[in-house]
Amino acid sequence: MVNIVSNNHIKRRLPPLGTLTAFEAAAHHQSFSRAAQELHLTHGAISRAVAQIEERIGVDLFVRRNRRVYLTAAGQRLLKTTTEALDALSYTVEEIHRHDSTSPFLTVSCEPSLAMRWLMPRLGEFRAQCPELNIDLRMAGGPIDLLSENCDIAIRRMDFGVHEDYQITTICSELAGPVCTKDYWEKHINQDLNEANWLHSRTRPNAWDDWKTSHGLEKVIPKSEQHFDHFFYTLQAAQDQLGIAIGSTPLVSDDLTMQRLIAPLGMHPTGYNYALLTLDDPNLDPRIAAFSNWLIGAIASSL
């Protein structure tokens, strides 16, 4: 009697996926150092990954010569198959991610200041409107790779370039101007910005300079200055009467409405917008459509 063993039950003798990724980068660059830079690894990590594959298959993939590496015939063959396999895997993961509209979770990446000062206080409102959808909120700013960071949506201030494949849905235009408490304005400033303690954010270091330039006030010099690591710290410092900061809507919209802060010199367009970044048209995914429609409406009503 002949026993037939299905290939489905044969354990795949593949090296770890991470080693194949390292090999592919090294092969494309013909350099372990450049591969290390691309993958944010060390030269030694790339070398060990390649050595692990070579040990598994028993064949040299590179010829090492004069601090350079060159693919062997076996290396060229493995590179072709590895690239095809990783591309196919990447495509499948992207397709699953793009079309998993039945998931009860929506992963949203949002700039920290906007999340803390505007979005989080309103998530209960969205939850009441869409109780079946759970928001996984992640705080981050600047450029984002939605796929690699496993996010469905990113809410960003559009002060950076975006890959042409992304869908950009404008949420609102940004307005900005000096903000402080009414008491601070009356006691310390009273129309003379030179007498104020100017509050700065290291994440928006040019906010005051941009505002001065747009109003022709380049020669105005503050009596004192104070710097904070994040924009939301700066706004909180203004609310705590430590000085005057450049605030922007929608971040300070609630503060202005509740009169926790005032904008004595008005709020003016900065030329930047806040936008929703998605991989596809938001209307193709009912989860994203529900959130984006609520978001746009909520921001419009708060301005």
UniProtKB/TrEMBL annotation:
<dbReference type="Pfam" id="PF03466">
    <property type="entry name" value="LysR_substrate"/>
</dbReference>
<protein>
    <submittedName>
        <fullName>DNA-binding transcriptional regulator, LysR family</fullName>
    </submittedName>
</protein>
<feature type="domain" description="HTH lysR-type">
    <location>
        <begin position="15"/>
        <end position="72"/>
    </location>
</feature>
<dbReference type="InterPro" id="IPR005119">
    <property type="entry name" value="LysR_subst-bd"/>
</dbReference>
<dbReference type="InterPro" id="IPR036390">
    <property type="entry name" value="WH_DNA-bd_sf"/>
</dbReference>
<comment type="similarity">
    <text>Belongs to the LysR transcriptional regulatory family.</text>
</comment>
<dbReference type="InterPro" id="IPR000847">
    <property type="entry name" value="LysR_HTH_N"/>
</dbReference>
<keyword id="KW-0238">DNA-binding</keyword>
<keyword id="KW-0804">Transcription</keyword>
<dbReference type="InterPro" id="IPR036388">
    <property type="entry name" value="WH-like_DNA-bd_sf"/>
</dbReference>
<dbReference type="GO" id="GO:0006351">
    <property type="term" value="P:DNA-templated transcription"/>
</dbReference>
<dbReference type="GO" id="GO:0043565">
    <property type="term" value="F:sequence-specific DNA binding"/>
</dbReference>
<dbReference type="InterPro" id="IPR058163">
    <property type="entry name" value="LysR-type_TF_proteobact-type"/>
</dbReference>
<dbReference type="Pfam" id="PF00126">
    <property type="entry name" value="HTH_1"/>
</dbReference>
<keyword id="KW-0805">Transcription regulation</keyword>
<dbReference type="GO" id="GO:0003700">
    <property type="term" value="F:DNA-binding transcription factor activity"/>
</dbReference>
